[in-house]
Amino acid sequence: MTKQDTITTRGGDKGETSLVDGTRVAKSSLRVNAYGTVDELNSVLGLIRCEPLPEGLSERILQLQNELFDLGCELATPANSEMANKIPNVRQFQIDLLENWMQETNQQLEPAGNFVLPGGSRAAATLHLARTVTRRCEREVVALIESGEQINSCCLRFLNRLSDLCFVWARLCNDYGKSDIRWQPGPHRS
Question: Alpha-carbon distance 153 to 156, whole Å?
Fold first, then answer.
């Protein structure tokens, strides 16, 4: 396990940062954007855990935070690096777990009947924020792939399932969907 003793290294003072293998890249690189957004998502999930949540949800979110740290590490390591085989990689079983959690949650929810707006409880609103940050992260990983970088295909699938999971968990935090705020299309709003 990596030990971090020093926070201030001054290594990034000129707009560059080090990847896991020591390669220096611009802080504006597609790779840094992608794993930086994973870090942002992890922080949003940390905020959610500060809220009152349905039983067991805090523990699942904590598990996701660890999974996201692994994902960020994977995105911060070029596939052709010697370090690539020494870090945790996203695997299909992790995607399967998200799908199982989503199916389990969906069975508890009131039918949506219409599009749901972000809001309701603070936990639900923050889960919607996590969902949108996850979608941005997906776009950044796609851009990284389109640039020619070799990325584990499970990374993108994991993020795609996670955004859906954040949506159903948001509904769960809105009294199992009963307190969701439904979208009212323009001509019908009063």
Answer: 6
Neighbours of 165 (CB within 10 A): 22
User: Is the CB of residue 30 less than 8 Å from the CB of residue 49?
Assistant: no
**Two structure tokens written together for 48:** 């959610």
CB 130 within 8 A of CB 166: yes
What is d(CA 186, CA 172) in angstroms, rounded to the nearest whole number?
A: 27
How far apart CA 166 and CA 126 sit, in angstroms, is: 9
Q: Cα(119)–Cα(142) distance, rounded to whole angstroms?
A: 28
Residues 11-61 pLDDT 10s: 566 678 887 888 898 888 999 999 999 999 999 999 999 999 999 999 999
With tokens 């954040």, the residue in question is 166
* Cα angle value 88/98/125 (rounded, 5°): 110
Q: Which domains does the chain have, with CATH numbers?
A: 18-183 (1.20.1200.10)
SS3 content of the chain, % helix, strand, coil (to 5): 55, 5, 40
Per-residue pLDDT band at 4 (split at 50, 70, 90) = low
Q: Which two tokens stand for residue 40?
A: 């942002």
For 41-119, list the strands marked E by DSSP: 116-117
